Amino acid sequence: MDLEKKELLEKISKLELENSGLRKRLEAFESPLSADSSKLQHTKIDEDFTLDEYKRYGRQMIVPSFGSRDGQVRLKHSKVLVIGAGGLGCPALLYLSAAGVGKIGIIDDDVVDTSNLHRQVLHTTDSVGIHKCESAKRYISRLNPHVQVETYPYRLTNSNAFDIINKYDVIMDCTDTPATRYLINDVSVLCSKPIVSASGLKTEGQLTILNFKNMGPCYRCFYPKPPKPETVTTCTDGGVIGPAIGLMGITMALEAIKLITGYYTKENFKPFLAQYSGYPQQTLRVFKMRNKQHDCAICSPSATITKEIITNNEIDYASFCGKVNTNILDSKYRVSVRDFHENNNPKSVLLDVRPPEQFQITKLPNSINISWDPILTKADNIDEYFPADFDKSKDEVYVLCRYGNDSQLAAKKLIEELGIRNVKDIKGGINKWSEEIDSKIPKY
Ligand SMILES: Nc1ncnc2c1ncn2[C@@H]1O[C@H](COP(=O)(O)OP(=O)(O)OP(=O)(O)O)[C@@H](O)[C@H]1O
Ligand SMILES: [Zn+2]
């Protein structure tokens, strides 16, 4: 009965959340899109621009590399697709729309979360809960009403990617998983579209241009095989400094402008990978990259991947990139947060294996912090951290991390290599603790 009640309460709170999200979306539609669009000078003074547009874009038109008035005309007639309106997509969208790209498509299935706001600078506190692409559209319409924005509030998939990508001239990969990167790459190559691609994590970022005029290398030329899933760190896991990822998004916009205005030609384009580090001193290094690979599975004459293979879902990009195994330990070594909360013995040791930065944000009482790394280096002299009367052969050690993956690896090491017998992993980590036991423990 209790369980049923809990389920019902959970359902109600989910519906309430959904309801408030829908209300916010409705308000977004009803709010005036452009407070001062009536003040715009709408009459064209020549075949291309109004007086407002000359004034708005004048400062960039007079920069020689930009291409003057022709450069601006090219931007105005261009169509750019931004995939992902997150940490990279927001700054890229900001500068592309300010610069006067004629049509911008934005695809993202996600809604704005408070944890996005430190870096996803198009979204504001009152956009939390609404679709990222609608929130971005609202901002862009205020910034530059000359830009036409089309939104796709769903995921890019094998089935819709060709239709959407085909409508645009330049594709901006602002996503965050290898699976989507391969999909964007394959479809863009088959549609002959250049991709501006970047990524960023913690204090660093990377940027490149792929499939330039079907002549430059593609993502598969660089990475024929996906990285091992356990080596892929997301912003949720590794964290990210807003301005560092923001810089990558802004440089993506610049590369798109260079592509559109015709700065890059078959003659001057050289494959590159730009690598940015924000710490200790800011550096931007540009590496020369290999050319197109003669045996690339998508962009070479011997390519094996076709449009049919993709649209018939014969490639499952998620399984191609693999999944992290989240069931490392046998269930006999695992306990729920509730079990731990209700049954743990005061003599047991609670070992928190999160990095010290996370331990500083929040911790459970009486926990010991030894951060997990793939070899749990500090665990070799783990006895130093345990109480003097700790008995390896019988006393309990509970292992906790953020979500319950690293804690399993650490528990395995304690059991298999350090001879500690009575080890239990706490399922779901401190995140689950915050959800089920103590909501005052902050989620971060
Ligand atoms: N296949 C896809 N189709 C549409 N949008 C995608 C796809 N894959 C990723 N995205 C979007 O790309 C964006 C990437 O943004 P970012 O890397 O800043 O991560 P996030 O998911 O917003 O943040 P966090 O990891 O902190 O939760 C996200 O908004 C995500 O929804
Ligand atoms: Zn290739």
Description:
- With 444 residues, the chain is α/β, with parallel strands linked by helices.
- The protein folds into 2 domains: 23-35 and 45-321, NAD(P)-binding Rossmann-like Domain (Rossmann fold), CATH 3.40.50; 331-436, Oxidized Rhodanese, domain 1 (3-Layer(aba) Sandwich).
- 36% of the residues lie in helices and 14% in strands.
- It has 16 helices and 13 strands.
- The protein has helices at 2-30, 51-61, 68-76, 89-99, 132-143, 161-165, 178-190, 219-222, 235-238, 242-260, 307-311, 317-321, 337-343, 356-361, 406-416, 429-436, and strands at residues 79-83, 103-107, 148-152, 170-173, 195-201, 204-210, 272-277, 283-288, 334-335, 349-352, 367-369, 396-400, 422-426.
- An 8-stranded mixed beta sheet has the order 3-2-1-4-5-6-7-8, with helices on both faces. A 5-stranded parallel beta sheet has the order 9-13-12-10-11.
- Helix 4 packs across helix 10 (242-260).
- It starts with a helix and ends in an 8-residue tail after the last helix.
- The model has no long low-confidence stretch (mean pLDDT 92).
- The structure holds adenosine-5'-triphosphate and zinc ion.
- Residues 217-218, 220-221, 292-293, 296, 298-299 line the site of zinc ion.
Which hetero compounds are present in the coordinates? adenosine-5'-triphosphate, zinc ion
Spatial order of strands in the largest sheet: 3-2-1-4-5-6-7-8
How many domains would you count in the coordinates?
A: 2
Assign an overall shape.
globular
**Chain-averaged pLDDT:** 92
Helical content stands at 25-40%
Q: What gyration radius follows from the Cα positions, in whole Å?
A: 26 Å
What is the rounded distance between the termini?
Answer: 33 Å
- Number of E-type strands: 13
Supply the CATH architecture of the largest domain.
3-Layer(aba) Sandwich
Question: Tally the helices: what do you get?
Answer: 16
- Please report which band the strand proportion falls in: under 5%, 5-15%, 15-25%, 25-35%, 35-45% or over 45%: 5-15%
Sheet with the most strands? 8 strands, mixed
Fold-level CATH name of the largest domain: Rossmann fold
Main location: cytoplasm
Active site: 235, 401
Subcellular location: Cytoplasm, Cytosol
Binding site for ATP: 87, 108, 115-119, 132, 176-177
